[in-house]
């Protein structure tokens, strides 16, 4: 049976009602936010109009980890990266991935002025590396997960160009990487000294994956409206659910809300099964788990408070009724022709250097 025509208005489901972690904002947030935003602005990643709209998003507010500045930088880096790759073709997306990973792997090499992504990655990574011992395992963990993120974004670009909509079970593994949450969770490891057998324990991996899924799917729930308006909604759980299960938009949101709440129950149940590793390790592990929980809460709070996905009047209606509407038109912060022009310059320079 064909589903009903899609409505432009829908109601977000109730989620995280019993989540043990409540809204908490670091006292260092405002200062770190200002420093990180000034850093992003100094590289002029977007045209003036796009930069003004980006600044209003308050993208740094999403993370409550100890090293707030590093977390703010990472979030700001992700938004520049995502905006660029959202308007890139497959070759351009792969090139952006290559220059980002080159900057992470070779932080001491000077970069061209037009290489905005490379400069941001390099400068951010130079600061982050100072937060732990030089040979700490979390450094390689971060690099491996960042490589998975950039590769997944390239795959997402390929899906977008081919108009490929994945089924839900195929979508989730890719979404775990396109969120960028894995490297963000690695930041939590930097001030800790968790043994490898703890951080790689199957239950800890399950908790991290479940928290990642919660962040990703809650993000999909909020971002769908603007992704739909920009034609980027193929890589969104709502689209996969509607397509696979033949549901209308409200039924898809209700299905997703129920799935999110089941994940929250699973996360809390897994906490009760954790083994003991000794007082010191257990205390550090509790810090790690608390940060996962705050990430989940913070992601939903930020989505409902910033202007990344909703304008001021829309936020008021969301708080009042959980109702929202798909906008008729929405533009990204980056312009396709400017991103393409920047990448062509960098590609030409690379070609000349290889001759």
Attribute tags:
355 residues, mainly alpha, two-stranded antiparallel ribbon, 15 helices
Terminal CA distance reads 60 Å
SSE pattern, N- to C-terminal = EHHHHHHHHHHHHHHEH
Looking at the chains present, what oligomeric state does this protein adopt? single chain
Portion in beta strands: under 5%
Low-confidence sequence ranges = 1-5, 53-66
Alpha-beta classification: mainly alpha
Overall morphology: globular
Number of strands: 2
Mean pLDDT: 86
Level of helix content? Answer: 55-70%
Number of helices: 15
The strand order across the widest sheet is 1-2
Question: Biggest sheet, in brief?
Answer: 2 strands, antiparallel
Cα gyration radius (Å):
20 Å
Q: What does this entry look like structurally?
A:
The protein is mainly alpha-helical. Helix content is 67%, strand content 2%. The protein contains 15 helices and two strands. Strands 1-2 form a two-stranded antiparallel ribbon. It is globular and about 50 Å long. The N terminus is likely disordered.
Topology:
Elements: E1 9-11, H1 29-42, H2 48-55, H3 68-86, H4 90-105, H5 116-128, H6 137-162, H7 168-178, H8 181-189, H9 196-199, H10 202-230, H11 237-245, H12 249-271, H13 279-305, H14 312-321, E2 323-325, H15 336-354
Antiparallel strand pairs: 1-2
Helix pairs in contact: 1-3, 3-5, 4-5, 4-6, 6-7, 6-8, 10-12, 10-13, 11-12
Summarize the structure.
This protein is mainly alpha-helical and 355 residues long. The chain is built from 15 helices and 2 strands. A two-stranded antiparallel ribbon has the order 1-2.
